[in-house]
Amino acid sequence: MSHKHPKRPLIFLITGVARAGKDTFAAALRSHLPTAGNRIEIYKFAHVLKDLANHQLRRMGLPGDFHDEKFKNDNRDYLVALGRFLRSIDKDIFAKHLLAQVQGDIDFCDLDTRVIAIVSDWRYANEYEFLKKHIDADIVTIEICRPGFEPANNEEGDSLAQLFLDCKVMHKRIASDARTLQDMAREMSIWY
Questions:
Q1: Which of 46, 151, 163, 183 has CB atoms 3.0–4.6 Å from 156's, for a disulfide?
Q2: How many helices (H) and strands (E) does the chain have?
Q3: What is the CA radius of gyration of the chain?
Q4: Contacts of 115 (CB under 8 A, 6+ apart)
Q5: For 123-168, how does the pLDDT look when each residue is reduced to its tens digit (9 = 90+)?
Q6: Cβ–Cβ under 8 Å, residues 92 and 86
Q7: Whole-prediction pTM value?
Q8: How far is CA 139 from CA 54, 107, 148, 165, in A?
């Protein structure tokens, strides 16, 4: 059972097209946030999806690892199809899994510690709405843009378009390189 934490959790939801720098930004943000009094974790909605796909590969005796960037990119269609199938059964499936992880951190950390969750693969408006409804936390949404990079597929393009249509993005940042991502992360760490 969850207890009311005196320090309100903070959740960063980071979105953007594939290879825009979301993971790099998330890691930089984590490194710039103060560690004293905070428990800072990076999460991915799709982490459980990759684990499930890897489990299927192992069960069938097949090689590969969806956590490997090249293997994931070469086989992205499978992850998209599996994710689409799971979301067709329960559109909040990945948000529920993430909530359980974050809630576990909240429940098992000291009361004087603030939990900060950085989610580096936010894609769907319903994920934001689900978290907003089910956890008492400050939620900050950030889009990372990188000139010349387009959505990896129609699914990604449609889901990102819906985020912007629903006005769910609070901060839009344009990154030209890793240094720009570092500067943006430093800026966000000061604000929050």
A1: 151
A2: 8, 5
A3: 17
A4: 5, 7, 9, 10, 38, 39, 41, 102, 105, 106, 109
A5: 899 999 999 999 999 999 999 988 888 887 788 888 888 887 766 7
A6: no
A7: 0.86
A8: 31, 18, 29, 18
